[in-house]
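User: I'm putting together notes for a lab meeting next week and I want to include a structural view of one of the chains we've been expressing. I don't have a solved structure, so I'd like a prediction I can at least talk through. The sequence is below, exactly as it appears in our construct file.
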Amino acid sequence: MKTAIGEPLKVYGPSRSLSSVIGLCAALFAGVGIFVLLLPTLLAGSATRFDGDPSLLFGVGAGFTALGLLGVAGVWYFYRTKPRVHLHQEGLVVVAGGHTTQCRFDQLQDLYLFYYLGGFAFRASAATPWTFVRATTSQSAELQREVVARQVAQRGALLYEQLLAGQAVRFAYLPMAAGYLKSLAATSSLDYPEQEMVLTRDSLTVEGRAYPLADIADIKGNSWTETLQIRHVDGSVILTTHFSSVLSLDLLYALLGTLQTGAEYAA
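Assistant: Thanks for the context. Below is the predicted structure for the 267-residue chain, given as structure tokens.
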């Protein structure tokens, strides 16, 4: 059924592999616990006897059973609280904890990609809260690729027309330290001070200085140092920051490249 965000394509829920591992461990602990609790009954009337304190068996059995039940509760909580992401042709809907967030790709202003731990966060504007989609979502890498590609295609086409009409487009970026911190712990917070780059059809302004697009050599990332550099044609570095600090980086890269070559935007 077609909606305001196009035809539905796929639903991404909590990762089944992770919940299966948790469930298997829970069942194993519960099984061992129940076996130990029943051991005195199973040994009754047999030649094998347990000469230790019966309370020891009860304590061990109860402990393992409790761990198993906690694991079952963990799987239930995992499925209940983790978001379900409904991917549509022109947007996505995230349902989590009774709250629903919907965003069209052509209105998706900021997209943050967690570098090592996977997952992403997005918002329609700086005035709206972030929505987080974790790597614990099933097929999270595929979902992330879809979101990035559709933002680049759909929002990119809209922004490209605005740029050709003489408007400026702003891209926010976070402090370098914030990027490194998020590589270690993908917490549900992106409450950091932001700076911005301003892209026009003729220039890119970084840290208050405008550079003609012809002077921008490239945008290069280094996975070993987790750094991203915007470099000048004379070999100097215009900006160095963390690889994930620039919001909607793929969109910036696509727009910058298209403006520099003068080609039609590949929507």
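A couple of points you could mention at the meeting. Residues 179 and 265 are 30 Å apart (CA to CA). The mean pLDDT is 82.

User: Perfect, that's what I needed.
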